[in-house]
TrEMBL record:
It comes from Saccharospirillum mangrovi. Keywords: Oxidoreductase. GO terms for molecular function: oxidoreductase activity. Pfam families: adh_short. This is SDR family NAD(P)-dependent oxidoreductase.
Length: 254
């Protein structure tokens, strides 16, 4: 049976690649992001894709999109939460812009959480509702400069896990996705080596396959994420010692 799917964070990178994957399983695929132009360019390639442009941190925009889905489709089978941003904390540069914590948390945590609660009534109308959250393998072990990004993804992952527990009895499943490095406009800004870099198309194929197989947690590529998971089993003191070798902040300030 074809599904009503909503992909939030669809304009570039993994999201744009997911449009092509999820459209195959959709009766109707709604795609959202801030850029209407990019969404339109994607949607015109498919007959079953509708665009709902808005900023995930904007309450009015979220409510308007939800109302549109309710009017057109009446239910929601799969909600894919892919909206995200990344800003690094550079302690070696001196005073940190504390506003970056708010920006990252708003996009990666507060916005998706609010949207899910606001759209939950549509998922409850599905015979088998599903929430898919694109988190990150950064949460497996503490990494330098990731104070804001890692915190947002750790909070997001914990929230997804608790939603899975509380919604299980209603028949709504939750899929947590923790990818390694994927070649996206965000990661292209990174000024460090990214091991085992995947293409967005490869990542999207893995995500779609995992959703369709009913997986609870997807992490890939395994040769990278398993190393992080294994390191995360070490005593924190050892993790801190190992990962501090990657830190750029090696100057003692007075």
């Amino acid at each position: 049976m074809k599904k009503i799917i909503w992909l939030v964070g669809a304009s570039t990178g993994i999201g744009a690649a997911l449009v092509r994957e999820l459209a195959q399983d959709a009766e109707r695929l709604y795609i959202s992001a801030r850029s209407a132009d990019k969404l339109s360019a994607l949607a015109e390639q498919f007959s079953n894709v509708n665009i709902l442009p808005f900023d995930v941190t904007d309450r009015a925009g979220r409510h308007a999109a939800i109302a549109e889905i309710e009017q057109q489709s009446g239910r929601l089978d799969t909600l894919v939460l892919n909206a995200g941003t990344c800003e690094y904390v550079d302690l070696e540069q001196g005073d940190t812009d504390l506003g970056l914590y708010q920006r990252v948390l708003d996009t990666n945590f507060h916005g998706p959480v609010a949207l899910t609660h606001e759209a939950l009534h549509l998922l409850r109308r599905s015979d088998a509702g599903c929430i898919v959250g694109i988190s990150s393998s950064v949460i497996f072990t503490p990494l330098p400069r990731s104070q804001a990004y890692g915190s947002s993804k750790a909070a997001f992952t914990y929230w997804l896990s608790t939603m899975a527990i509380d919604l299980r009895g209603e028949g709504i499943s939750v899929v947590i996705v923790s990818p390694g490095f994927v070649d996206t406009p965000l990661t292209q800004l990174n000024d460090f080596k990214m091991p085992f870099l995947l293409s967005p198309e490869n990542a999207a194929q893995r995500i779609r396959d995992g959703i369709n197989r009913g997986k609870t947690h997807l992490h890939f590529p395994k040769r990278f994420t398993l190393l992080l998971l294994l390191e995360g089993l070490l005593p924190l003191r050892w993790q801190h010692a190992l990962n501090s070798k990657l830190s750029r902040n090696k100057t003692k300030h007075t």
